[in-house]
Amino acid sequence: MSTRPKKPARPASRARPLLVKGWLWLGVAALVLVVACFVFLLAKPPHFNQAASGISGSGPSAPIVEDERRVFAQYAGSESCRSCHAEAYESWAISNHGLAERRVEPQLDQAAFVPASSFRHATQSTSSRFDGTNYLITCVGLSRTNETHRVVRVIGNDPLRQYLAAFPGGRLQTLEAAFDPRKNEWFNVYGEEDRLPGDWGHWTGRGMNWNSMCASCHNTRLRKNYRPASDSYATTMAEMSVGCEACHGPLKAHVDWQHQHGQEGRRDPTPPKPSRRQVMDACGFCHARRSELTGDFKPGDSFFDHQGLVVVDHSAGFYPDGQVRDEDYEFAPFLGSRMATNGVTCVDCHNPHSAKPILPGNWLCLRCHDGTRTNAPVINPVEHAHHKVFGYGPGGERTDFDLMAYSPRAIKETGGECVNCHMPTTRFMQRHPRHDHGLMIPDPLLTKEQGIPNACTRCHSDKDAEWALAACVKWYGAKMDRPTRRRAQWIAHARANDSAARLPLVQMLLGPENPYWQAVGAGLLAPWIADTTVSNALLKSLEHPHPLVRDCAARALEPLVEQPGSAVTRALRRLLDDPVRSVRVSAAWALRGSLEADVAPARELRHYMDLNADQPTGQMQLAAFELARGRPQEAIAHYEKAILWDPNAAAIHHDVAVVLSQVGRNSEAIEHLKTACRLEPKEAEFQFKLGLAWNEAGRMDQTTAALEAAIHLDPRHSAAWYNLGLARNQLGQPEAALDALTRAASIEPNDARIPYAQATILAQLGRSAEAVAAARRALAVQPDFPAAQDLLKQLR
C-alpha cells in the first residue's frame, strides 16, 4: 500500500557552522557541534520507496549493478506457479500483495467511476468518471487549474486504492484522490490538508512520484533507471505487483526443472531454501522505513546489504518508547520487540500467501503463551488484561465467554484482545489503521511525563493518563517500573539535549539490550561525541556482531574523523572492509572528505548517492559530499536544484545558507535563513543560525533578537545561550552576558568554552577571584585548554 509522503528530514550537512566574527577576542570560536551523520533519505516513508537499481551478493568486491536483461531472464512470473501450487496461488492472487499494483480492470474499478461523482477537500474539488473507454480523474494539476487525467494503473487494494497518471519523462504520478472499496467512496489521502502544485508533496511533485516513491515495493525486482541528464525514467520490472518471486526469489530454473524432471520423482535442487532471518529480511525490504543503498534487493539477500534502517533517534518519526509516530511500518519496531529477540518472525504469525494472521484474535498469541514454549510466559488474557471477552450468540445477543472453552471463531473479542494493548493501531492515509509491531507494554506514566500515547487512553478516550496510571498500578503494582520505562525516559531526555542522558545511553549501548536498542543508543549519543566516555563506547561498538549497531556507531563517530590519524579514523577505515554493505557505506560517508575515489566502498557510496539523486534529499546529500571534498560551488549548485524541486523545505534553505556564508555570500545566506524561519517558525536551530549570520553582517541588534528567539523556542539550546552571552558582552552588557553563560553552563557542563568565556568577562570586570574559579572550571573539564591555562597564569 502506498502512502502520503511526509516532508523530507534534513540530511546532516558537513558544512561547518557559521562563525561569529568579532567575538574571537574572547578566545572562543562560536561554533555549534554539527553532527554530520550519514544521510538517510527520509523524503518519504519507505513504502513510498526509492525504487530499484543495484547489487547482487555482498562483500566489498560485489558488483554495483547486475545486467538487467540477465536478471529478468531468471524470472518465470507468478502465473507459472499456478498449476503446481494452486492453493497458495489462489490465496495470493486476491491478497493485498497479489493486487499491490495492476492495470485498471472494469471488474474491480467500475464502482469507483460509475456513476460519475465528485468530492471536496479543503479548498479543492476532485471528480471521477468513465467516458466509455477511459477512467478519468479531474483535479488541480500543474497548471494550478482543474485538469483531467486518464488513470493508467492502480496501486493498493484494501482498505484503499490509489490511481496513477502518466507524465512526461517516463513518470507515473500518484493521484491524491483515493477510493475506499469498503465504503464505496472517494476521499483525499491528505484529508483537509490543502497541498498545492509546486509543493514537493503535491500529487504532481516528486513526493508522489511512483518511479521513486512507490514502485519498488509494489512490484517484483524493479529497476528505477533514473536518467539525471534528462531528469527522466526508464523504469522496468520483472513482474507487475508483488508476485511469487518477490518473496521466493527468481524461479525460472525451478519452473524449467519441473517441466523437464517433475514426473521423475527426483528431488528438485533448484528452489531456494531461505533461513528464518532471510525470510524476515525479505519482508523488511518493503515493510520498513529505510533508505535504499543499492536498488536491487532480492530474497535471500541480507537486509543490511541493501538498506539503511531508520530507527528511534532525535527525529520525531518514533516516540521515545519506540512506538510509531510517522509511517514507519512494521520491521524496525518489531526488531526492537521481545518477540524478535526470542526468534519470532513474520511468518510465525502471518500466512505468507494471504498475509493475514494465521489464527484470529488471542488464539494467535496463545500459540506460544499457553505454556508450550520455554521462553514465553503463560498468559490468561482475561486475568492478565483485566478486561472481559464477549461475543454474540445465535440470536445476536451479547454473551460473556470463558476464553478457553470456545472455538476461536465463536467470539468477538474486544478489550481482552492482546493486540489492543500491545499492538495499538495508528490510522494512516485517513483510512488505513495499522498495528504497531513493537509489542510494547502500555505505560500511562510516560504519557504524563513525555506525552507518549498509551493504549489505555487510546481506547478509553474519555479518560486521562492519571486514571489509566491508577488502574495499571492497582493491577500490576511494581511491575510497571520496568527497564523499558527507564529506557524511554532516557531517550526522551536525549532528544531534549539533556546531557544527563549521556551515561545511561552509554550503558544502553554497551549493556545486554536487544541490538536494535543498542543501535538506538549509539545514534542518540552523537551530540556528546566529544566526551571520551562516549567516543570510547562507540569505538568499542564498531566491533559489535550486529551490523545495525556498527552502522549507527560509525555515523555517530563521524565528526571525529577531522582528526587525521586518530583512533576513530583508523577504526572507520577498517570498517571499509566490513562484510555488510550498510556499514561500509556509512564508514565511506564518514571518511568522504579523504576517501580514495577508486576503492570499492567509494564506488558503493557513489552508487547510493546517484540512486537517490532524483529527490531533493539526494541533492542535499550530493551537496554535503561536494562540500567535504572542498568544492563549495558544486555544493551550492546541488542545493539550488534541491530548492527548485522543493522550495518549501526549510532544511534546504538552512543548509545552503551555511555554505553561502562560508564563501562570503552572507546577504544571500541571511535571506535563505529568513525563509527557513518563515517556513518552520518553531525550529530553534534556524533562528540560532540566523543570529550568527546577522553577526557576520555586523547587525548586533538583529543578532541578539534572533538568538533570544532561539532560546524562547528551545530553552535548552546551550549554543544559543552561549552565543547570546558573547553578544551581550560585546554590546556592553557584561552582567546579562554572565547570566546567559550561566544558563549555557547549566545545560552543557562539559563544554570548557563556557566557563572560559565567563572567566574572560569576570577578568575584565576586575573580579579576579571569580575569574580564577571560572578558569579552573574550564580546565577541570578540559585540562589541555591552552587559552584557559594562559588566562589562569595572567590572573595569578
Overview of the molecule:
Helix content is 41%, strand content 11%. Helix 18 (502-510) packs antiparallel against helix 19 (515-524) and helix 23 (581-590) crosses helix 24. The termini are far apart. Strand 4 (135-140) and strand 5 (146-155) form a beta hairpin. It has 35 helices and 18 strands. It has a domain at 442-481. It has 796 residues and is an alpha+beta fold. The strands form six sheets. Strands 1, 2, 3, 4, 5, 6, 7 and 8 form an eight-stranded antiparallel β-sheet that branches. Strands 9-12 form a two-stranded antiparallel sheet. It has a two-stranded antiparallel ribbon with strand order 10-11.
Core attributes:
two-stranded antiparallel ribbon; alpha+beta; 796 residues
Outline of this structure?
The protein has 796 residues and is of the alpha+beta class.
Fraction in beta strands: 5-15%
Q: Give the biggest beta sheet.
A: 8 strands, antiparallel
Number of strands: 18
- Alpha plus pi helix count: 35
- By helix and strand content, what is the structural category? alpha+beta
- N/C terminus separation: 71 Å
Would you identify the regions where 5 or more consecutive residues have pLDDT less than 50? 7-64, 401-413
Task: Summarize model confidence as the mean pLDDT.
Answer: 88
Q: How do the strands and helices of this protein lay out in sequence?
A:
Layout: H1 68-72, H2 86-93, E1 101-103, H3 106-113, E2 117-121, E3 124-130, E4 135-140, E5 146-155, E6 161-167, E7 171-180, E8 185-188, H4 210-213, H5 215-218, E9 219-223, E10 226-227, E11 232-233, E12 236-240, H6 244-248, H7 252-261, H8 276-286, E13 290-292, E14 307-309, H9 331-335, H10 338-341, H11 361-365, H12 381-385, E15 390-392, E16 398-400, H13 418-422, E17 425-428, E18 432-435, H14 444-450, H15 455-459, H16 465-476, H17 483-495, H18 502-510, H19 515-524, H20 532-541, H21 547-556, H22 567-575, H23 581-590, H24 600-611, H25 616-628, H26 632-645, H27 650-662, H28 666-679, H29 684-696, H30 700-713, H31 718-730, H32 734-747, H33 753-764, H34 768-781, H35 786-795
Antiparallel strand pairs: 1-5, 2-3, 3-4, 4-5, 5-6, 6-7, 7-8, 9-12, 10-11, 13-14, 15-16, 17-18
Helix pairs in contact: 14-16, 17-18, 18-19, 18-20, 19-21, 21-23, 23-24, 25-26, 26-27, 27-28, 28-29, 29-30, 30-31, 31-32, 32-33, 33-34, 33-35, 34-35
